[in-house]
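BACKBONE STRUCTURE TOKENS:
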Amino acid sequence: MNETLVRSLSGAVYVFLLIFSTLHSRETFFLIFGLFLVQTVREFTVLIGLSKLPAILVAISLFLVFGYFSKNQSSSDLGLLLMSVFVCLQLISWLFSGNSKCLVFSLDKWVKLIGYIVLPFVLLTKIVCIQKGTESIYYPFFLIGIFIIIWTNDSFAYLVGKSLGKNKLFEKISPKKTIEGFIGGLLFALISGVLISMFLEKTLSVYQWVIVALIVGFFGTIGDLVQSKFKRIAGVKDSGNIMPGHGGIYDRLDSVIFVIPFVYLFFKILEYVS
């Protein structure tokens, strides 16, 4: 079968499962993202040389305790958010450093696994809930909007980069990424943010969605580069092969898991100032 067709079909199935499960109910949302989490952890542990079974058990436990069974916003959410943001900032520093070694110590591997992989999945469960008084209401459209912006950014970064790209963005980590592609992806992400604000006018204002798009465009690209560095050090092209033509689930969610902590931080800031 034609490689482009296989890639398109595989991507379509992934998008359909994600959107359908998220919109259908809170339970199907947790099921699909719980499965995504397990597979992402499996792929990440291979890259960094960490035992799979304990990592999966820890990931599932944190996802259930702080996600599924925590139906109301709690004081622990801020701690989880700050830990995740701190680990992501560490990875940004590592990305731009000359250090090519990857998580030498076991404790460092566990910190990165939890802060960089597991906690963003937990924070995803907070984004789909709106707190009204003491009640938490499942509202998946925030997350769908964020995913649409991420997909728009990724797609147009690729298309613009392929057609107009001349200046490399970060050649030693990701040779195919260009500055033109980054700017193109960011521009169309901003446009998608404006359009989403029109359909979800009762959620965030147009200016707030534009800020979300800026966060997505910047940190989504950083997340992609961080994963590329992990793969380059491990000497692999893809994190897995579960999705024909795309690689692994970690390959599909690398931007998402890096973006979510910063988007959730923005939501927390909005909540505080309001």
Q: What stands out?
A: The longest strand covers residues 174-178. The chain has a mean pLDDT of 89. The beta strands are 129-132, 135-138, 168-170, 174-178.
